[in-house]
Amino acid sequence: MWLYNIDGKEKKTIILLIHPNPDGDALGSSLALYFYLKKLQHDVYLISPTEYSEFFRWLPGNDNIIIFSDKTESFIKKKVSNSDYLFVIDFNNLSRLYRIKNMKYLFSNYKGKTILIDHHPFPSKFDFMLFDYTVSATSILIYRLIYNMNNLDKIDKNIATCLYVGIITDTGFFRFPSVTSETHFIAIKLLDQGIDIQNIYFHLKVTYNISKLKILSQALNKIQIIDQYRTAYTSINESDMRYINSYNKSDTDGIVTYGLGIKNIVFSVFFFEEYKTSTIKISFRSIGTFDVNKFARTHFQGGGHKNAAGGISYTSLSESIDYFLNIIKKYKENLTLSI
Fold first, then answer.
1. Which domains, and CATH codes, for the chain?
2. In the Cβ-directed half-sphere of 46, how many Cα atoms lie within 13 Å?
3. Helix H or strand E encompassing 28
4. From CA 144, how far away is CA 32, in angstroms rounded?
5. Block mean pLDDT (10 aa), the chain, length 339
6. Is 59 helix (H, G, I), strand (E, B) or coil?
7. How far apart are CA 153 and CA 299, in angstroms?
8. With contact defined as beta carbons under 8 Å apart, do 75 and 102 qualify?
9. Nearest C-alpha neighbor of 231 from the set 273, 285, 280
10. Among the four residues 38, 84, 150, 325, which has the most C-beta atoms within 10 Å?
């Protein structure tokens, strides 16, 4: 079994790969695994295809993340070509990277063993798979991995902090339906390592950029309610962004959830036309039985979880919204009966 090949008895070169624009779970789970594998004396390299939110740059081990770019490409290529294992963490299809310049040739013909650790449905095929779409976060799977290797004693404050951040960000601070008794049990075990909850909360929930508040203000001002479909949607377009001097990609995080705070709303959608791009990024959130993962996969080349998913559109913002308003009519019964 592949677990025994990374037990530390034989030094391996290992690549940890996370998805573009990584969130708290991708970063938390991969950094925890990075620390753990380093304790087993392996050579480990953690690669992010893109930059990520500054709100996660306080995480332990953050400085060890290698951002893929023109400057790092040759270094990454060398390490990947000489590695024994490629861990794909918190996403389940390498094709997700292929829109990023020069990333396809790095990983499409990888010669080593590939290991998937993920909790999103419909994974592609890997040599080894630690996969469970019922768990609330990939960080839980990392905890299971360490447990199954009988190495829980190697979970220190740094590993515990990273795993805890992954869990709370992917569960909405333990609010989402995917939360189980296992989720809380693992959180308790992580708390026992002396993690600083107040500091974690401060970094994730209290510190806001003025640009984030400006974007949120515009999005809330434009929110639309479709009562007969129990749906709320809003958008930010390119012209909105021109009036915001300093902008981070993370500034739009969480906007989609505000729609679900409206009485009787079970489906919330956020359309984002990023400044100087030709694509529309779309976030979907739901409450109850309405499956936004299936909705995103069917209509917007996306996916995710039952109650949280994302998609993309290559038409204009207005055309994307018009298309959404047209297809949602097919789901009236599902939305009306949700919850």
1. 2-205 (3.90.1640.10), 210-337 (3.10.310.30)
2. 22
3. helix 24-39
4. 12
5. 76 95 95 98 96 90 96 94 96 88 84 94 93 96 97 98 96 89 97 95 76 88 96 91 69 89 95 81 94 95 89 94 96 86
6. coil
7. 46
8. no
9. 285
10. 84
Name residue 206's amino acid.
V
Single-letter residue type at 66: I
Neighbours of 211 (CB within 10 A): 16
Which pair of tokens denotes residue 177?
């339906």
Query: What pLDDT is attached to residue 212?
Result: 82
- Evaluate whether 123 touches 131 at the Cβ level (below 8 Å): yes
In whole angstroms, give the CA distance from residue 316 to residue 284.
18
Query: Which tokens sit at 240?
Result: 């909105």
For residue 296, what are the contacts with CB-CB under 8 A and spacing of at least 6?
282, 284, 302, 303, 304, 309, 310, 311
For 170-307, where are the E strands, in sequence order?
A: 224-226, 231-236, 267-273, 280-286, 303-304
Q: How far apart are CA 135 and CA 257, in angstroms?
A: 21
